[in-house]
Write a structure and sequence with these properties.
Blueprint lengths: L2 E6 L3 H10 L6 E6 L2 H9 L5 E4 L8 H10 L5 E6 L4 H9 L4 E4 L4 H10 L11 H4 L9 H24 L9 E6 L15 E10 L2 E10 L2 H8 L8 H26 L5 E2 L3 E7 L1 H4 L8 E11 L4 E9 L4 H9 L3
Length: about 325
């Protein structure tokens, strides 16, 4: 009997990777959903006895889907597949009724083992080339490949930030912009802030180069300082130290996770203070002005703490061919 399966993820790359990682010879019918609402619609239509569910998505996230499944007493079994590796994320989804938690990046052996352990499958053979070819009809765009790769990397950085501040970090969907540099400020969420402090760190390796910026608005910096027990004094020197440490942690962890997936290593420059308490447009005035760049915006948020911290990864125009080649291997 054919098993109806839903793969729900806002990333086309993640949906394709997961579909190709399922066991071979499995009598299933796959429905793809790009957000939680689409997944629920498919469940209501009888297409989701088993649901592979991402957490961080637009429209409706994975937590909201789990809450709705419990509230409506739907019979779908849910396996959460996420790059958010914070222990609190794992605890929350299990408390909401998820069957298990699978950590990104996707590992075929782990998925097969979980499906086998729960008695969902009886055969653990891999997919044949013919079965894999079913999912080769969509060539993914560079922006989608970058979004999912950064999504996994930011989960690792988010865990480190959460451990540092002893709190849960809400992870957003990364926003990828491929545009001329002078158009970048008007696209960023931080444009709404009147006063921003920024730390810059350059990186390069394997034909890929760029700059990582950590942006923190003036209202958030004192709040971050208060969360760190070793920096309780609110003076400016402590705040500058906090900003520098925070920037090194976020940019370093995210770039390391990104490079690992592409099987490369980045050399990192020393963090540089671009400015304190300045408009975003002024902080972004560099010699990149005429370049076409690829920029990834990650807006970290601490619920209940009134803290927002943006990580901005900017790749040079010369890096685009190497990025295209490296991320292409992930398909």
């Amino acid at each position: 009997m054919t098993l109806p399966v839903i793969i729900c993820d806002d990333s086309a790359m993640a949906r394709k990777q997961l579909a190709r990682s399922l066991p071979g010879g499995w009598d299933i019918e796959i429905t793809f959903a790009t957000n939680g609402q689409e997944a629920l619609d498919a469940i209501h239509a009888g297409k989701g006895d088993l649901l592979f569910l991402d957490l961080n998505m637009p429209v409706m996230d994975g937590y909201q889907v789990l809450e709705t499944i419990r509230k409506e007493d739907l019979s779908s079994l849910v396996l959460v597949v996420s790059g958010d590796i914070q222990p609190e994320a794992h605890h929350r989804v299990m408390a909401l009724g998820a069957l298990d938690f699978i950590q990104k990046p996707i590992n075929t052996e782990i998925i097969t083992g979980i499906l086998s352990n729960y008695g969902i499958i009886s055969s653990t053979q891999p997919q044949t080339p013919e079965e894999l070819a079913r999912f080769n009809n969509q060539e993914l765009e560079l922006t989608d490949l970058i979004q999912e790769t950064v999504n996994i990397a930011m989960g690792q950085a988010g865990k480190l930030l959460g451990d540092l501040l002893d709190t849960f970090i809400h992870l957003p969907v990364p926003k990828v912009h491929l545009l001329n540099y002078h158009n970048l400020p008007e696209q960023l969420a931080a444009r709404r802030l009147d006063s921003v402090s920024a730390i810059s760190q350059g990186f390069n390796g394997a034909g890929i180069a760029g700059e990582a910026l950590v942006l923190l608005d003036d209202r958030s910096l004192p709040a971050v300082t208060r969360l760190l027990p070793e920096t309780q004094s609110p003076d400016s020197n402590n705040q500058l130290e906090v900003l520098t440490d925070l920037a090194g942690l976020l940019s370093g962890a995210c770039l390391k996770g990104f490079a690992r997936q592409l099987d490369i290593q980045f050399s990192l420059g020393h963090p540089i203070i671009l400015g304190r308490s300045q408009p975003l447009s002024q902080l972004l005035q560099t010699n990149w002005h005429s370049q076409k760049i690829l920029a990834v915006e990650i807006d970290y948020h601490l619920p209940g703490q009134n803290i927002e911290c943006d990580l901005l990864l900017m790749f040079t125009e010369d890096s685009l061919p190497a990025l295209t080649e490296r991320t292409g291997y992930l398909q």
